Amino acid sequence: MFFDDERSNRLRPEILTELVGQYLNDAERARFLGLPATTRIRARAKIISPEHLRLGEHCWIGEDAVLDASGGLNIGEHTSIGVGALVFTHSSWLANMMLENHPGSDLIERTPVTIGKGCFIGGHAVIMPGVTLGDFVTVQPNSVVAKDVPERCLVAGNPARVFQRYDEDYIKAEAERVRAENARRREITITPWGSPAGDFT
């Protein structure tokens, strides 16, 4: 039933790791995968070639996200990767065109991706190989980022383009607004911390 070849034997530990990971909570899964202790990684998220992933502290990786680190992937601290987001560091298009799309093909191209600190990658966004996102970048859901993005920008679309640039004063004002609203909500509810959910109009 099981193949006993080099590729199968190399992939089997990854399959078993993924299976065991489904029975762990976010923090346990992160520790099991050798990620920083402050990482939260949701169920069904997948990391390809985790040995090539460099991940900062306090990162969050959503359900069904796929992080392809085979070409090298660096993610800064306090960055979130949304539900179902895809980060690619390799492409096999040339292997397909040359009819050489087989395991170990020398036509697979790998280029690293860098995602800065304090970034938010929305759900189902796609980051293409070779892209660098600066610090504090927001990628709106369902966007396809195919070129570098400077720091403190909001990008959206396919292909993604810059829609807004943030300055530090804007971010601080927004943080104050949200903290004040959450403090107001905590006075109404019994939630001792965080962001209370519900209708507070």
Under CATH, the topology of the largest domain can be stated as: UDP N-Acetylglucosamine Acyltransferase, domain 1
> Please, what is the average pLDDT?
91
How many distinct helices?
4
Q: What's the story with the biggest beta sheet?
A: 7 strands, mixed
Round the Cα radius of gyration to an integer and report it.
19 Å
- CATH A-level architecture of the largest domain: 3 Solenoid
Count of domain modules: 2
Task: Give the full name of the CATH homologous superfamily of the largest domain.
Answer: Hexapeptide repeat proteins
Please give the share of residues in helix: 10-25%
How big a fraction of the residues is strand? 15-25%
Tell the overall outline: globular
Low-confidence stretches: none
The structural class is alpha/beta
Number of strands: 18
The first-level CATH class of the largest domain is given as: Mainly Beta
Q: Please report the distance between the alpha carbons of the first and last residues.
A: 60 Å
Element-by-element helix/strand order:
HHEEEEEEEEEHEEEEEEEEEH
Read across the widest sheet, the strand sequence of neighbours is 1-4-7-12-15-17-18
GO cellular component, one term: cytosol
Family: Belongs to the transferase hexapeptide repeat family.
GO molecular function: O-acyltransferase activity
Keywords: Acyltransferase, Transferase
